[in-house]
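Subgroup meeting minutes
Present: P.N., E.W., G.H.
Scribe: E.W.

1. P.N. recapped why we're keeping a running log of single-chain structure predictions: easier to compare across weeks, and new members can see raw inputs and outputs side by side.
2. G.H. added today's entry (337 aa).
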Amino acid sequence: MAQTFGRDEIRRMGEYWYEENWYSTRVTLASGTSSIFPQATGWNPNPSPSLMVTLEDVATPQDPYLELVATADRFSRILYAAQHRPRLEPVALHMRAVSSLSLVATPNGGAITDDPVVYRVSVLKLPITWKVMLGYPITALESEIAKEVGISTSPVAQAGTSPIPISSVIERTYYNRQTQTPTEYDGPAVSPTPQSPVTLPIVQAANENELLVVRNVAIEADEGYGVQVQIERDADPQHTVIDASTVSLDRGADLFVPAKDYVQVTVSTQRALPGPIPVRLTVWHVSLSDILRVRLGLLDLQGLQSLFTEGARTPEQEKALLDAATRLYDRTLAGVA
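Output recorded in log:
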């Protein structure tokens, strides 16, 4: 089973500005209800939220007896597993929450026996434009920054112009800054045993100017052996745990898991395997820009100003560079850089 999703996990993910992680569990239930994960609450300060959590998608077998209820803040949706796609293909939800999120299973007309439930959750450190568009309160400082960078605090005025979609943010500030070929491990099949898991070669950031991002894990193992892929991220063991029976080589687990220092992947099994199993890991090596540093909390305004003014030769130059650094910092916080 994957690490339990909840408030502490949300806060850890928020330290990386944006993250998308994969979770799975198995449900056996004859009556009543069972929480896929306990209701997550209390991760945000009041009144202005800092982190938005999104239940991106859910996958289940086509079990006519399985129903799920997803609740994000005050909005709920019933999911009928019988109508889901085959082969555990995900059903998109994109349910956003800033105060509470839950996912509950219930039987409908018959018992549920060992049904896998897979779900992906993303956490975003909210830029000002996102707060404005979604109608969340903003702080006095955020209101001041919005005015400085020319953002209206009216959602109607901003409609169609911002915020920048996450897919575009990833394309513009992560994907196009890769420093090498992304596939990290596509080597020989591995042979873990119940007593001896197999750890793949560690993936380390080349230096302090590089960010790693785990994008996909694919593995081929038959159900019943209890094969798992465990990802340790920056001294956080089992940050991501993938049940191998819920993925395959041609349909791996799509992730966006950043790491500032290293990624370590281990393959384990509960039962003896009949032979080696193939595994593929895809990791981006991303050169850190000033924008990414600010997002990740690696660079504050004073530090950015110091970088900008290093080559200043006159007071006028220094002032211009200080102003440029402040504009970039504000635009990054606003979500328009």
